[in-house]
Amino acid sequence: MPLPDVMDKLVSLAKRRGFVFQSSEIYGGLGSVWDYGPLGVELKRNLQERWWHAMVRSRDDIEGLDSAILMHPRVWEASGHVGGFVDPLVDCKNCHGRFRADRLQDAQCLKKPSKVPGAHSECQLTEPRQFNLMFKTHIGPVEDTAAVIYLRPETAQGTYVNFLNVQQASRQKVPFGIAQIGKAFRNEITPGNFIFRTREFEQMEMQFFVEPGSAPEWFEKWRAWRMDWHVGLGVDPERLRFHEHGPGELAHYARAAYDIEFDFGGTLGPQEIEGIHNRGDFDLGKHQEFSGKRLEYVDQAANKRYLPFVIETACGPNRTLLALLVNAYREEPVPGEEEGRTVMGFHPALAPVKAGVFPLTKKEGQPEMADRIAADLRRTFPVFYDDAGAIGRRYRRQDEAGTPFCITVDGDSTRNDDVTIRFRDDMGQIRVGAAQAGAVIGRYLEADIVRAESTLVPPA
Ligand code: ATP
Fold first, then answer.
1. For the segment 12-51, what is each residue's pLDDT rounded down to a tens digit?
2. What angle (nearest 5°) sits at the alpha carbon of residue 33, between those of residues 27 and 37?
3. Per-residue confidence (pLDDT) for residue 425, from 0 to 100
4. Alpha carbon of 242 to ligand 1 centroid (Å)
5. Ligand 1 mean position to 55 CA, how many Å?
6. Which helix (DSSP H) or strand (DSSP E) does residue 447 occupy?
């Protein structure tokens, strides 16, 4: 049984609540390019910062890098992208649709969407031809062939060409890694499924340089660590799985490759959100050959030099964010109420807003007290102050935004200097001193608790 398809509901919630908007919408939109709104940008940043912390800041064997999008055109010849970063493209001479020849089963005939391209009697598909996915542009004022450069289709090459710079500047010894987060561009033939496959996206990649003989061992370590990281985001482990690339799927240079797949439900089903690859010395070897510069690592202690092997972990934050949205989305009945609620049950550490702060009424000094609490908490984490409408409606709005905690100031609060904390996931409430509210929420965040439930309050 496939898991339910929540994509249409998510696209509408994402727009309504300000997670994701279509690019250039007022001009009719630009196909498969998306903008991240106020809640989406916070969620994406939290995700990227968590990755950066896990990969760079909390380790002494990985260095950070931020390389440029534009690179010397020879880089893409060396990497094989100019010759080989292609997908097979077929055109339909009848409907003028363009499809990936190897993914026809996922596409729809433009004349008859219930059929796949080629299956309708009027389809006239051409023979497949190779289509390069790299976006071309020109550098400098003259648009001739000598000035052609590419928007990078992956961040990895910026890491390979800087391998010795980073190693020498940081004085790291092999084994060590280089990590970066940045934009990548691919002129995908069939983008789609909301932010799953887009033409402009981001990557969080890490290349770990090891002695050739130890590569299989490091590959296994990284495979396990990366799966643990996804589980730590609060993703249901039942929806995650490994997909091993068989001999037919393996890129010619790769020695081993696994994808981490998330089950998006519906027709999309399980799909790659991250790839883990043992790339051997292919990349450094090619750049050494094309640049004419020695890129070997000198192991002074062992008195030897060699090209390290690379274990790569390549994760897409946009696709992982879509997985987080799908994983978080739930509709449920509310006891005693006619209308149910929609909840985005994000891990509190990833939630765009950590706390809603509400005065119950607009009198008796409640707004002033709530405002003071909100201003105080805002120094530590994002807070949303709301005094509009019935309290139940305000809670529902925060449930939809995925806000894990709500703090309510009522008539007793101004007398007793205490507040109610309401927890998103079980809707349970506790009463605490006004000054303690921030500390209670802080304890959840520090303890990295995945659900916002009143019964899980970690001890002080
Ligand atoms: P796919 O087979 O889905 O095209 P890939 O194997 O080419 O992906 P990689 O080159 O390994 O992907 O890139 C690493 C990660 O970057 C992917 O796991 C995915 O999360 C992300 N990614 C790749 N292409 C896109 C895209 N067009 N839109 C959004 N994210 C992408």
1. 999 999 999 999 999 999 988 999 999 999 999 999 999 9
2. 85
3. 96
4. 15
5. 19
6. helix 437-447
For residue 160, give the nearest of 297, 55, 301, 260 by alpha carbon. Answer: 297
Alpha helices in 276-407 (DSSP H): 282-291, 317-328, 366-377, 391-401
Check pocket membership of 106 for ligand 1, CB cut-off 6 A. no
Residue 147's nearest CA partner among 78, 68, 72, 84 is 72
Q: Which atom of ligand 1 is nearest to the CA of 277?
A: 11
Instruction: Note the pLDDT tens digit of each residue in 321-345.
Output: 999 999 999 999 998 888 899 999 9
Q: Record the pTM.
A: 0.94
Query: Is the CB of residue 203 below 6 angstroms from any atom belonging to ligand 1?
Result: yes
Q: Is the peptide bond before 175 cis (omega within 30 degrees of 0)?
A: yes
Residue 3: helix, strand or coil by DSSP? coil
CA distances from 127 to 114, 134, 171, 191, 299 (A): 23, 22, 53, 21, 52
For atom 22 of ligand 1, the residue with the nearest CA is 316
In angstroms, the CA 67 to CA 181 distance is 9
Q: State the greatest distance between any 2 C-alpha atoms of the chain, in Å, as a whole number.
A: 78
Name the 3-class secondary structure at 363: coil
Distance CA 18, CA 20 (A): 6
User: pLDDT band for position 111 (50/70/90)?
Assistant: confident
Q: With a cut of 70, say whether residue 399 has pLDDT above it.
A: yes
Q: How far does the centroid of ligand 1 lie from the alpha carbon of residue 353, in Å?
A: 28
User: DSSP code of 152?
Assistant: -
Q: Is 201 in the pocket of ligand 1 (CB under 6 A)?
A: yes
- 335, 392 in Cβ contact below 8 A? no
pLDDT classification of 459: cutoffs 50, 70, 90: low
Mean pLDDT of the chain: 94
The finding on whether 32 has its CB within 6 A of some atom of ligand 1 is no
By the 10 Å C-beta count (0-12 exposed, 13-18 middle, 19+ buried), 362 is classed as exposed
CA–centroid distance, residue 323 to ligand 1 (Å): 14
Atom of ligand 1 nearest to the CA of 260: 18
